[in-house]
Amino acid sequence: MGVFRDADHLYECIGGLFDVLRRDPKIGKTLANAKMILRFRYSDPDAVITVNCVDPPPEPDCLVTWQRGDAGPPATVEMSMSADVAHRFWLGKVNLLLALTKGEMKARGPIPKLLGLLPIIKPAYELYPKLLRDKGMGAMVP
């Protein structure tokens, strides 16, 4: 069994991180300025997160939206990976370029645009473990 018990657990953790990022004035604004639809397809457990950085979010305190599943506009960039790889990525333990080269992650779309977001999301590597600890899931943080 992987890090996540099921898809709901993944949405609570990784979706919870996107809840934080979409409200962050710096990260959320940069994501909104990227004008992309990012779709993340996870396996083991199967789950999909779509981050909409194009359409204005309905919530006044948010800069982008995310949702479960792949409804909505077509993705600008689509990433596929195991949920465990995603977990390690958000802990700062996976190099995106190396993971793409090794096939641990697969990407479709304008990869340079995606790579341009890496410096901006770097603070998430500290936010994710803090989020897990705050949710009482500190055992998930090595």
Written description of the protein model:
With 142 residues, the protein is of the alpha+beta class. It is globular and about 35 Å long. It contains seven helices and five strands. It has one domain: Nonspecific Lipid-transfer Protein, Chain A (2-Layer Sandwich), CATH 3.30.1050.10. A five-stranded mixed β-sheet has the order 3-2-1-4-5.
Helix percent reads 40-55%
Main sheet: strand order:
3-2-1-4-5
Uncertain spans: none
Rg value: 14 Å
CATH architecture: 2-Layer Sandwich
Give me the CATH superfamily: SCP2 sterol-binding domain
Number of domains: 1
CATH topology: Nonspecific Lipid-transfer Protein, Chain A
Return the average pLDDT rounded to an integer. Answer: 95
CATH C-level class: Alpha Beta
The count of strands amounts to 5
This entry's quaternary arrangement is single chain
Distance between the ends: 17 Å
- List the total number of helices: 7
Order of helices and strands: HHEEEEHHEHHH
Question: What can be said about the biggest beta sheet?
Answer: 5 strands, mixed
Shape: globular
Approximate strand percentage: 15-25%
Q: Look at the helices and sheets and give the structural class.
A: alpha+beta
Q: How would you describe this structure in keywords?
A:
Nonspecific Lipid-transfer Protein, Chain A, five-stranded mixed sheet, 7 helices, 43% helix, 142 residues, alpha+beta, 5 strands
